[in-house]
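Record 1 of the preview.
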Amino acid sequence: MDLVTFSMSALIFFPLAAAALIAFIPGDRKNVIRYATLLATMVLLGGVLLGMTFGGNETIAFDIQQAGMQNVVSLPWIPTFNIDYFLGFDGISFPLVVLTALISALAMGASWTIDKHVKGYCVLYLVLLGGMMGVFISLDFFLFYIFWEVMLLPMYFLIGVWGGPRKEYAAIKFFLYTLFGSVLMLVAILMIFFNSDLRQLTPQQLVDSRVRLAGVEQIGSPVEHLAAATKYQELIAAQETPVHTFNILALQQMGQHTELFDREAFFGQSLQWWAFVLLFIGFAIKLPSAPFHTWLPDAHVEAPTPISMILAGVLLKMGGYGIIRICYPICPDAGYDLAWVVCSIGVLSMIYGAFAALAQSDFKRMVAYSSVSHMGYVVLGLGVWSATVVGDPVSWNMGVKGALFQMIGHGISSAGMFFMVGVIYDRVHHRDLNQFGGLFGKMPVYTSMAIILFFAGLGLPGLCGFIGEAFVVLSVWKFSALLAVAGAFVVILTAGYILWAVQRVYLGPEYKGKHEEALTEINLREMAIAVPLCVLAILFGVLPNTVFRYMDATVDAQVQDLATWTKETKIPRLQQERAEQEKTAAAVAPRLDQQAADVVAAKGEI
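->
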């Protein structure tokens, strides 16, 4: 096993191995279990940060100049169905890998208040971490789906066992919603797989897809050179039956350079149209977008604080990641046609989530609905496509980068907001906004950090929440000025519920709830979690290029590929359809004129 294979696999299997070792620690040694789990998350974070810092080394290092997949691992897994153990990351997935490692380590620090079944909690927590990493670095569709499902069970138990009074209801609701989306995704995956055919790709496209060689040179090695790809293409071209694949990169090439997914499926719509819709619904449930969002407030309210941090900071981002990684590159024709639908869903989520947050009296539920609103910016930014019709991919480029930055910024601010709510809840055991007040006088250090994080969620310039929202609103202007104005208007609503909550909780004359004596200043453990989030919220707001520099090359390349597809494939297709419609109308017009003349003549005779 080479170093790259070991390092990439460690992102997934190191947390699982740590979980297996922790399972052997006696359950009554709670602090040992906690520290062991924290150490595992810190080691994983350290490895990822080293890869981020020292680009170019033969580990999990990341080269910001490279647009394609890096640190690719491709090993045969189920050769009968061309299913591979296929891992890698690029400028879209690597920032999310770093975010996952960071939030997981901080959330484990916030788990010290968990006192029931500590060993079971820590084992499930590490299994969840391994599943989240697997989703972001899997490049085989089948493997991606497995890790997507792996996350479901530990999160179900983490909410259902360690949650609040209605934990069973919230856990079942989360499970059913996510499972429903997963079933739709599975149907779409099968539709795409059984219509794929590697024989349709050119040797260069096979190289770009890192497709596995079979029968050429070394069996089991990914194709990396044009000569080997040419031999492989000649080999599979002689086969009489299609060569199906789950390779996500190959499926992207098929979606943009072949007509394999364009055949009519149901009700006059193409196969890729239906695949896009099914995949989008599955990912929109995870985001979540209205009207698929109703599981989120219940899950957040009942989940313990660290699990709410994971849920908001990482799990929601998987929906946006799936849309930009899978939906648009594999189903570009459907993405183009449904741009208005996607953008409208994004704006609806933004407005609905903001109004719902304004109506809440539960502090945690308010923050939960704010996530629905903020993730609407992600959907809107990813949906801004048809501005490329005029030969200007800049708008969509700005939208995609704004959406990805929003995912990172929201991961920091939302995890911070949920943690700050949890700090108060651990002391006074309630979240009623109407019973708070005057916390600044009792907990000034805590209040100062909480205001930084809540203002980051507000989108205040100079903090991490502003950049992504601003880029998304700017990107949508060419697509629709009305949607741009609506997106800008949501900023006012966001300021409304954030400032109102700050005024009711931290300012005001006095605290009106129970357990006032428990309102003590934030301790060192809590500061160790809050300070990094506050620092990053400021850093990403003041120096946004600390994030953009990692995604620029990859996003530029993907947007340019789809802009080229729009110009060379979609526009000629639309022009041809328009010409055929005009030709049909011209052929029908004389008959209609003759029929009208006959009617007039008949009336004259009468």
